[in-house]
Amino acid sequence: RHFYSGKDEL
Amino acid sequence: MNIFRLAGDMTHLASVLVLLLKIHTIKSCAGVSLKTQELYALVFATRYLDIFTDFISLYNTVMKLIFLGSSFSIVWYIRRHKIVRRSYDKDQDTFRHYFLVLPCLLLALVIHEKFTFREVMWAFSLYLEAVAILPQLVLLQRTRNIDNLTGQYVFLLGAYRALYILNWIYRYFTEPHFVHWITWIAGLVQTLLYADFFYYYFESWKNNVKLQLPA
């Protein structure tokens, strides 16, 4: 999973 | 990506396009708060620090570039464009930046996910976005004649926030471990700030009269 998980929103 | 998130992003995009279109075609920024636009430029600049280091998706990168580019070009138009700048209501747009920026910065230094530069800036951008609309709302209240485009701009921004809340509810129930207190509380506060505006917006729409906020 992405390191910046959950921060995929704008 | 769920339908609420996509609809939210699209209304956000539409709000920015409506504003740019108004400024670009009518060559007027009457009723638009430069303070709010500068705060948004700061919000995007501090939130998208990951733009070149963490690739999420092409959609994500493109949208970030659009929001950065559009917010800075709106600021440029109001400050520098030789025709547009003349229509800026400088005397009415008196909200002080630091009243909003300093408390948000202090809050971000205290409440964040991790004490790193990027995380503190990320929290700061969320807190600042929550209140960045305030100078615009104050300006609308002072402007007796709100033109349709400015009214629609604020309405679309409010709709974008409301759709993001639906998106979080959806994600909470469909994704494991999707809990983001900072984002949620800042987002909820931001949406509540639009409640009053929405009320008058729908009233004016229902009664078919020009939008006017009570002083």
UniProtKB/TrEMBL annotation, chain B:
Entry keyword annotation includes Transmembrane helix: yes
Membrane topology: Multi-pass membrane protein
GO MF annotations in UniProt: ER retention sequence binding
Keywords: Endoplasmic reticulum, ER-Golgi transport, Membrane, Protein transport, Receptor, Transmembrane, Transmembrane helix, Transport
UniProt-annotated location(s): Endoplasmic reticulum membrane
Lineage top rank: taxon: Eukaryota
Pfam (any one): ER_lumen_recept
Primary site of residence: endoplasmic reticulum
GO cellular component terms given for this protein: endoplasmic reticulum membrane
GO biological process: protein retention in ER lumen; protein transport; vesicle-mediated transport
The UniProt record lists the keyword Ribosomal protein: no
Transmembrane segments: 55-78, 98-115, 121-140, 152-170, 182-202
Recorded family membership: Belongs to the ERD2 family.
Protein name (record): ER lumen protein-retaining receptor
Organism name: Cynara cardunculus var. scolymus
